[in-house]
Amino acid sequence: MISVNRVTKEFDDITAVNNVSVSVEEGNVFGLLGTNGAGKSTLLRMIAGVFKPDLGEIRVDDMKVYDNPKAKSRIFFVSDTPYFFDNANPVDMQIYLSNQYPGFDKVKYAEYLRTFGLDPDRKINTYSKGMKRQLALLLGICSGTKYLLCDESFDGLDPVMRQGIKSIFAKEMDERGLTPVIASHNLRELEDICDHVGLLHRGGVLLSKDLEDMKLNIQRVQCVFSSEEDEKKIENGLSVVKDDKSGSLHVYTVRGTREETEKAFKEVNTIFYEVLPLSLEEIFISETEVAGYDIKKLIMG
Amino acid sequence: MTLRSSSWVDLTENNKRRLWQWCVSLFLFILCNTVIFLVLIMSMDEARYVADFGSRAEEMMMRDARGYAVSMLGASGFRIVMTTIMAVLAAFGGYSYLNDRIKLDFYGSVPQKKSNRFSTIWISGLLIYSGPYIFSTLLGFAILNATGYGAVYTMEEALIAFCQLLLYFLGVYHLYMLAMMLTGTAFAGGCAFLVLSLYEPAVRALISMLKSAFYRYSYILDSFYIPVVSPYGLLINILNPRSYGRSPALYAGALAVFDLAVFILVFILYMNRKSEAAGKTLAFKSTAVPLKLLIGIPVVTFTGITVAEVLDRSRELTVSDMGLIIFVCIIASIVTCVIIQGIFELDIKAAFKRKGQWFVCALAGLFIFFGYKYDLLNIDRYVPAAGNVESVVFIPNGYEDLYTWMDDEHDNMSAEEFGLTHMFITDVQDVCDLHRLSVAKYDELVKVIDDYRYEYDEDRRFSAATVIYRMKNGCLVPRTVYVPVRDNNAMYLLDKIMTGNDFVKGYYPLLSVDTDRAIDETPFNELNATYSDGLHTQVLTGEELKELVDMYKKDLMAFNYNERLEELPVGYLDFCLSGGRNLSRTYYGSSCMSITIYSGMKNCISYLHDKEYDFADCHLEEEAAQIIITNYHNEEQDARAKELGVPYLEAEEGDEFIRTVTYEPVADDEDDGMDDFARVAAALHPCDRGTYRWDGGKSYDTRYEVVVYMKNKKNTPYGVNCFFVEDEIPEFVMEDLSL
């Protein structure tokens, strides 16, 4: 497990990460969402041991990570701009990284390179941006580390390749319990892959929840009340996050399970009501609007 | 195998990334060094050596082959340059990733301890330098052995040179690493390296300027300009066999300590350097203030002295002068601080932050300026207590004119350098007393001059000497002493100081040089040994030169200061010695010497007489066709100018004071001109070495300008300057030239 406990990181007068606490459970895909400058990359670099936190502590499998090779050997960091040696080809990178990561799977690496159509003997500096990102992700996957930190790594990948990488993630998670941590500013990129999402904004955590829990605990209800009294009963009895009213039609976003919500509406007189599912995007909109943020501007891309 | 237990694997991987540095190193050491050495050795022409040295040709070829070997395989300037280049490249190539955020993401996240990464890069840099160096040296030995010069240079010498250069390499390597650790960009790192390298020499130059401007008695040794906290300065002292009186091993030890200290500092900075420093000017914010003060303060002081120079430093500063200096210094402080802050922040607006530092720089800089100007610490007139002094070097500047000081290898050196390595006057009380007496007398003179009450008085004559005290604490205290050479107490002390082997051995270089060997090793056509009395010249052979120099040495061992006061120069011996061939295939270390022979040098005079080189058969009255004597009456001209209140007389007025008389041999007995001509000729001395005497001894009367026109074979006269000895001018000449 990766445990980030009350971590703060400042750059001169700017607080990039402010008292952040999150946990990344093993076997999950953790999505780290946030706008540019939200602190995602800084947090990932601290988890990878590139930056040292000013305050707080980061532990990987209960080991401090900064300048600790044992902890670092369990992490592979794919930065937003992956670095490859000058004039190196994929094999040169494999030779170096297999020396650094004892669990590097050379056979699997060769196989993936073939699958993705990456020539192992071609100089990497002749690769396209997308190919470089693929290569960086493949190196990370094949390094055999338990945790794979990906900083905006899916940007620049075409949908087919993105899907391919996601499939490999799923396979690796099944086979050896790989735990990817994916930072992105784009919610849609993470929607179909993440189990748990942390939302960073201005260096702080707005929320950190399981997607499934979030989906189960927030509902949208369309209804028309018979009387103002019934309307007040619902608003007092439920945790209403949002109420969009158009004439006599109310569209509520409320916290709680579907059962709790339906039960509340059954107890009042309504002309009509219907409990509707929320998309992940809508859930985030609701969650962040509560905190005073316009999520559309923040992360919808 | 545990996690990357194999350091060798890390090292190999690191070296793979540094292929271009290996290429540069191999290019410099193998292609440049070895190929040039091979060309030099192969181009040695035996026929030319036979022409230059005769039977000694083979010996001289060996000597020159050794010279080439020392230049190309030893700690020579050539290899120092290559070492400097490689040290900078190795440091930059190894640690420049610290300035690159993309590389830092990569290297910072791989499972390797920072300390391991540091040591891997450090060792790799060392290998990049030392591998090709050792290989090229071995190739050099192979060339020497293959060409028959195997004996000229030993492995032991090569090893010592390697150790010296390795120490130097580490110094520069660590210094550049330090610059990189303190900064976050390649440009800032380069600037920081320049600052670290040039700061001490710049501060020393500033101190020198201040002392020259404001101190009367302070003397600055050449060695003062060699930085101490610097691999360059320490290497200069290691390679300089003279090392200004200190052991080269001491400097080698100092360089090793420097290397270690900087290494430790670099390692601490590396371990504490944050990744986010990449791209910033300064990696550690805390260095900003000290850096600004360290640069700003000397700039302010420099500005102060520049303004004082413009205002004429020799006079006292008026209140308005001081106001101007303070104003300009404050402006300089502000400009400097703004520029430095701007570089730190990379932002024009931010450059005007931290205004308090402007005034700290200005105040400190001005304090140093006025500290020197008014000698607040009383440094200038400091005379060490004899009890604190171990020994003294006393150099009367110009006592022997036209003299070249040289070391055992015949390389030129300064009188101070020679004195520091050869002169150890232990009777320091005399020197201290003379110093104290001289300061008191000279201060009196300066006061009189400052009050415009000074009138020339030959008995108040001062001659400058350089005194270097070797203090018991190891420091050197150099001073300029203006000695009142006609003062009885001073004359007594001078006699005690200078009449003694301690002084003579440390002042006359020929006593310390193996002149026979030096003469043998100089090509025939470069020896150029002559003896002259000013009118006539005799060419000497190598053997004659050796014999005359031996006589000279014997005379020097009997040197007596007071006796020399009454002696006059009778001639001079000129010759040149050379050391060997340098890389441009010309002779280096050519030391040309000119030795004055005095009338009291019995052995020299006797030798010259026996060889008939003393020109005893030559008589001026027989050789001269005409003698023209002029007296400009300068003292009278000055007196008239003073009466008129002008600094000097105009040309027409001055001409009224000039008197000229011509003497010629006249056959007519009725006129006694023939006798006058003979008497004048008999009173004249052709050797021009007696026009100035440091010791105030017997010298020529410079008021009379004498030009003698000689007869030559075609009876065409040419002029030669001759001189009357003071108080020995024929009376009729004085009358003829009186006003």
Structure commentary:
The complex is a heterodimer of chains A (301) and B (739). Chain A is 37% helix and 31% strand. Chain A is α/β, with parallel strands linked by helices and 301 residues long. Chain A folds into 2 domains: 2-210, P-loop containing nucleotide triphosphate hydrolases (Rossmann fold, 3-Layer(aba) Sandwich), CATH 3.40.50.300; 217-299, Alpha-Beta Plaits (2-Layer Sandwich). Chain A is elongated and about 75 Å long. Chain B has 739 residues and is an alpha+beta fold. Chain B folds into 4 domains: 7-198 and 229-274, no CATH class; 386-510, no CATH class; 514-610, no CATH class; 620-736, no CATH class. In chain B, the strands form 5 sheets. Chain B has a 5-stranded antiparallel beta sheet with strand order 13-12-15-16-14. In chain B, a hairpin with a 7-residue loop joins strand 15 (704-710) and strand 16 (718-724). Chain B is globular and about 110 Å long. The model of chain B has no long low-confidence stretch (mean pLDDT 87). Chain A binds chain B through residues 11, 45, 48-52, 67, 69-70, 72-73, 75-77, 79, 81-83, 85-86, 92, 95-97, 99-102, and chain B through 1, 3-4, 9-10, 13, 16-17, 102-106, 108-114, 274-276.
